[in-house]
Write a structure and sequence with these properties.
The complex is a heterotrimer. Chain A is of the alpha/beta class. Chain A has twelve helices and 13 strands. Chain A folds into two domains: 200 residues, Periplasmic binding protein-like II (D-Maltodextrin-Binding Protein, domain 2, 3-Layer(aba) Sandwich); 142 residues, 3-Layer(aba) Sandwich (D-Maltodextrin-Binding Protein, domain 2). Chain A is globular. The termini of chain A are far apart. Chain B folds into two domains: 51 residues; 244 residues, MetI-like fold (Orthogonal Bundle). Chain B is 71% helix and 1% strand. Chain B starts with 5 loop residues before the first helix and ends with a helix. Classes of the chains: A alpha/beta, B mainly alpha, C mainly alpha. Chains A and B meet through α3 and β7 of A and β1 and α5 of B. Chain C: Belongs to the binding-protein-dependent transport system permease family. CysTW subfamily. Chain C: Part of the binding-protein-dependent transport system for phosphate; probably responsible for the translocation of the substrate across the membrane. Chain C: GO terms for molecular function: phosphate transmembrane transporter activity.
């Protein structure tokens, strides 16, 4: 008796749960409206499923691209798992995803392993450029000019007061208070940190002696998780300064960075310029477009602190459908419209036409293996 | 507690074993053994996967503070700072939570009206089940904003105590904030344990002391606390175990640095669990394996604490 | 888990309002003294703080409590005696402890409720985040609810049989070394930090499938490691409560032991076992850290397949929204937190109902 009463009870509970679970949908937004559908997409006939994985820096941009692309191409599904650059690269090498997003290009060992997987050339395509803003929260000041070595000394906690003469020298008009400087860094391992630190070590010369890695090397100061965490730490404190992906820095004071003789505000165009002005990586093969960022560039109006995130792909795939989908999707990603979508949604900097042409050249040659 | 152990008192029917019996007993025994295998597996896999990075580590794992493991080329990492931060956070939380938890337990058992007490007991159990990520969200979304000014005045008046030395973090995301949230999280655990032992204090002890003219406090001090002390300690140790392993709340609140610092009002320190959660997604090279080694250390620390707790609680049972 | 022994808690002389203990030798404060003094100190605190221009709820409460503690102990010292004064002081402290603990708990529930209700509606509960770009004011938690149901469901399917059978072994069959070892190691297992359970599965998956593989099943296994010991513990307690007379009666009728367990012992204890299982579920349903490591934190679409691809769950959803950090993300996080708390409370409530309606009428 007890058991039957019990099973009635369990049955009712189960039925309730099932009823609840039957009414959800994946259509959070109406695919017809909102202009999500991409006009510039060159769809693959018959559709299919494309999987990618990798950098979380591209997560927002990817969300925009995937939404627009799949909105335009019926029957096509694109999955991008933002598992992190490292995991993305190893999944790519395993062959479990068709392309990877990565905050750094493949190194020698990884290239070797990936080439084995592809059975052909493996390419790094710089499709996502995100300026890194140096943002601060200081009463009464919303613009600052800082030279690279001053930025380095601030983040290295060698300059500890806002009214330090080294800061004042470049900012004659600013009313700098006698406040402690509190540098804020990322607490999680990130490509943003890695790029910012490599900028400092290249551009600041002797003022920055720490090693380059995805982890923040200096002790002291504040730390917070993710760009959003850094922003809220900057906003929450006083006299704080930190580096964040530019799309997050909207409401904060930002630093115009000294490059060459001038001070450059971050902007998409200025960030795209540094990428164009930088030389290609020496190890590049014909279709590979990895770049060595030239942080000390003299190019006028180039904003030197950027995060360049790559799409890693094979030049040959086993399956024809994989090759077609990669070609079509990445083609949309780098297209003018694709870059505009991610600029609007994720605050990235659109790549230049010259770079687009180069990448498109490589994409055109992607094919299915014999 | 008047529970009997049926396996010793109830004689099972003698005679030939039936197939059903064999199967059932076998599967029951099998499940028990499976648990042992799972635990052995946990230990074996963790050790196996950590071996990779530990043998490549170029620094002393136990004395190094830095964490430079995301490379294939001469990684150098250690858990010194992490282990210190883990213990400091949990110990601070314990110091905050234990007296308050004992107070609440006393309130529920000896001070509150009975009807209210039973509701409170239920509420305390419920609070123990609120997910830690919600505590973290509350901590970052509400608590740290309230604590900022409080820290400033704390430093102003108590700054001469080394632990409270400035400069105070202006964001409020300090070790003390993390510890306060941990304290709130383990409060229900310690309260529940203490309440249980307080309710088991023999009525005769309490009535005897009251009959001798003791005030309520004297009754608690002389009859309740001595009886309940092992239970309180056991509860505190269980709380400590939970605080040591707590991940999300710390990861969301603390502004971490890999340093060893007693200054709970400044940003700094980091716990093992939060470090793993923050570093794991972008870990490359020896990174994942190194994080597993850190997890192994955390496992060892919690193991020691939990064993201690069990030992203390078990001793009470023997002498009670 | 905790056991509540009701018997000794009922007729306690110390219960309720403090008994007036008239002493023949010393005077005693009248009954109205305590509330009157409290009101007086509260007024005084408000006055003083107002004069200094520092009136805030926190300051007011702290000041009042301290002032009251001082005043009542002095008054009691003068009128009554030292022992009564200590007693009144401790009473104040105990009440203050309780009040202090209520502050974070009430604020937690209040913040989640007030922030969460803004967004928690039918739309939010029934759509996923598929195709939602960061600038859109859209999207919901359906995929996370699906993931939570699937992952905890699988964890329950794994843990309940293992846990229940083990507890049956411990209570009905076990003896000697093996029983001791299992009891001991179940205790050890209870103390495994959740992130270590996650790492275990990461290590396991790395050996079997290579690095970087995440799916729902991995999450479920990590949760099982956390859930099994809780199930064993609570089931064991419940099975022990079944009176031996029932077993003996069954044996006397010639029923084999396994049928005795299945037909007599388990039905008697079913209510307690169900309660225990539900509490264990409530505990693991909110686990975040192991799921981030094993089931991933970036799935946006509905995924019912435990063995393929990342799977979102409610706690991870909260965490990943906070990580993104926009205003809209925080709104989603609060709403998801509210949904999660409601689910946990529902499980608790069900557990209560089960234990109330199906509890066997044995000893009480």
């Amino acid at each position: 008796m007890k058991l039957s009463r019990f099973s009635t009870f369990a049955g009712v509970a189960l039925a309730g749960a099932l009823a609840l679970s039957a009414c959800g949908s994946d259509q959070a937004v109406d695919p017809e409206g909102g202009g999500a559908a991409a006009k510039g997409a060159d769809c693959v006939d018959g559709g299919g499923t494309l999987s990618g994985a990798g950098a979380s820096s591209q997560e927002n941009g990817m969300a925009a691209w995937v939404a627009a692309y799949t909105g335009a191409c019926e029957g096509t599904t694109v999955n991008y798992d933002a598992v992190g650059s490292g995991a993305g690269r190893s999944q790519f090498t395993d062959g479990s995803v068709a392309f990877a997003g990565s905050d750094s290009s493949l190194d020698e060992d990884e290239t070797k392993a990936a080439t084995e997987r592809c059975g052909s050339e493996v390419v790094n395509l710089p499709a996502y450029i995100s300026p890194i803003a140096v943002a601060f929260n200081l009463d009464g000041v919303d613009k600052l000019n800082l030279k690279p070595d001053v930025i380095a000394q601030i983040f290295d906690q060698k300059i500890t007061k806002w009214n330090d003469e080294k800061i004042a020298a470049d900012n004659p008009d600013a009313d700098l208070p006698d406040t402690e400087i509190v540098p804020v860094n990322r607490s999680d391992e990130s490509g943003t940190t890695e790029n910012f630190v490599s900028y400092l070590s290249e551009a600041a010369g002797d003022s920055w002696k720490h090693e380059v890695s995805g982890d923040w090397p200096v002790k002291g100061g504040e730390a917070a998780q993710g760009s959003s965490g850094v922003v809220s730490a900057i906003e929450g404190g006083t006299g704080t300064i930190g580096y964040v992906d530019a799309s997050h820095a909207k409401d904060l004071g930002t630093v115009a960075v000294g490059a060459g003789e001038e001070f450059v505000e971050y902007s998409p165009e200025a960030a795209a310029k540094i990428v164009d002005a930088s030389p290609a990586r020496e190890a590049n093969t014909e279709n590979d477009h990895a770049i060595e960022l030239d942080y000390k560039t003299d190019e006028a109006g180039a904003y030197p602190i950027v995060l360049v995130s790559y799409e890693v792909a094979c030049m040959e795939y086993e399956e024809q459908s994989d090759a077609d989908l990669v070609k079509s999707f990445l083609g949309y990603v780098i297209s003018e419209e694709g870059q505009k979508v991610s600029a609007d949604e994720a605050g990235s900097a659109p790549i230049s036409d010259a770079l687009r042409e180069k990448i498109q050249g490589s994409l055109d040659k992607i094919k299915a293996g014999a | 507690m008047t529970t009997t152990d049926p396996s010793t008192t109830a004689r099972e029917p003698q005679g030939k074993r039936r197939l059903g019996d064999l199967l059932f007993a076998g599967s029951a025994k099998g499940s028990g053994i499976l648990i042992l295998l799972i635990l052995a597996g946990v230990a074996a896999f963790l050790i196996g996967q950590s071996f990779d990075s530990l043998s490549a580590n170029t620094a002393n794992f136990f004395t190094t503070k830095e964490w430079d493991a995301n490379t294939r080329d001469a990684p150098a990492f250690g858990v010194a700072a992490l282990a210190f931060g883990t213990v400091l956070a949990a110990a601070t939380a314990l110091v905050i939570a234990t007296p308050i938890a004992v107070g609440i337990a006393l309130f529920i058992v000896y001070y509150a009206p009975r009807r209210l007490a039973s509701i409170l007991g239920y509420v305390v159990d419920l609070l123990a089940a609120i997910p830690s990520v919600v505590y973290g969200l509350w901590g970052i979304g509400w608590l740290v904003k309230q604590l900022g000014p409080f820290y400033t005045s704390l430093e102003q008046y108590l700054g001469w105590i080394p632990m409270f030395a400035g400069p105070v973090s202006t964001t409020g995301r300090t070790m003390l904030s993390a510890s306060i949230v941990l304290a709130v999280m383990i409060l229900p655990i310690i309260t529940a344990m203490s309440r249980d032992v307080f309710q088991q204090v023999p009525q005769a002890h309490r009535e005897a002391s009251l009959a001798l003219g003791a005030t309520r406090w004297e009754m608690i001090r002389m009859a309740v606390i001595p009886f309940g002390r092992p239970g309180i300690i056991g509860g505190a140790m269980l709380g400590l175990g939970r605080a040591l392993g707590e991940t999300m709340a710390v990861a969301m609140i603390l502004s971490p640095q890999l340093v060893i610092s007693w200054m709970v009002l400044q940003s700094g320190n980091q716990t093992i669990a939060a470090h793993i959660a923050l570093q794991y997604p972008e870990a490359t090279g020896y990174g994942v394996s190194a994080l597993i080694s850190a997890g192994l250390v955390l496992f060892a620390i919690t193991l020691v604490v939990n064993m201690g707790a069990r030992f203390i609680v078990a001793r009470r049972k023997e002498f009670a | 888990m905790t056991t509540t022994t009701k018997g000794s808690a009922t007729e306690m002389p110390g219960d309720g309002p403090p008994p007036s203990q008239k002493s023949l030798l010393t005077g005693s404060l009248p009954r109205y003294a305590a509330p009157a003094l409290l009101a007086a100190t509260a007024a005084l605190a408000a006055g003083v703080l107002l004069a200094f221009g520092a009136l805030g709820i926190a300051q007011f409460a702290v000041f009042t409590v301290i002032a009251y503690a001082v005043v009542i102990s002095i008054a009691s010292r003068v009128v009554e005696n030292r022992r009564q004064a200590t007693d009144r002081l401790v009473t104040t402290i105990v009440y203050a402890c309780f009040g202090l603990a209520m502050v974070p708990l009430v604020s937690l529930l209040w913040t989640v409720l007030s922030e969460g209700l803004a967004r928690l509606d039918l739309y939010f509960l029934t759509v996923s985040m598929n195709g939602v770009t960061p600038s859109m004011d859209a999207g919901g938690v359906y995929h996370a609810i699906v993931g939570t149901i699937a992952i905890t469901g699988l964890a329950a399917v794994i843990s309940i049989p293992i846990g229940l059978l083990t507890s049956i072994y411990l209570v009905e069959y076990g003896q000697g070394r093996l029983k001791q070892a299992i009891t001991f190691f179940v205790d050890v297992m209870t103390g495994i930090p959740s992130i270590v359970a996650g790492l275990f599965v990461v290590a396991l998956w790395m050996m079997i499938f290579g690095p970087g593989k995440t799916n729902g099943a991995a999450g479920a296994i990590a949760l099982s490691v956390l859930m099994i010991p809780v199930v064993v513990r609570s089931c064991e307690e419940m099975l022990r409560l079944v009176p031996n007379e029932l077993r003996e009666a069954s044996y006397a009728l010639g029923v084999p032991k396994w049928l005795t367990v299945v037909k007599v012992v388990l039905p008697t204890a079913i209510a307690g076992i169900t309660t225990g299982v539900m509490l264990a579920l409530a505990r693991v349903i909110g686990e975040t850290a192991p799921l981030i490591l094993t089931a991933g934190s970036s799935a946006v679409a509905i995924n019912w397949n435990l063995f393929n691809g990342q799977m979102m769950s409610l706690p991870v959803f909260i965490y990943s929204q906070v990580r993104m950090g926009g205003a809209i993300n925080y709104e989603r996080a609060w709403a998801a937190a509210l949904a999660l708390i409601v689910v946990v409370m529902l499980l608790f409530f069900l557990a209560r109902l089960v234990s109330r309606f199906f509890a066997p009428n044995l000893s009480r």
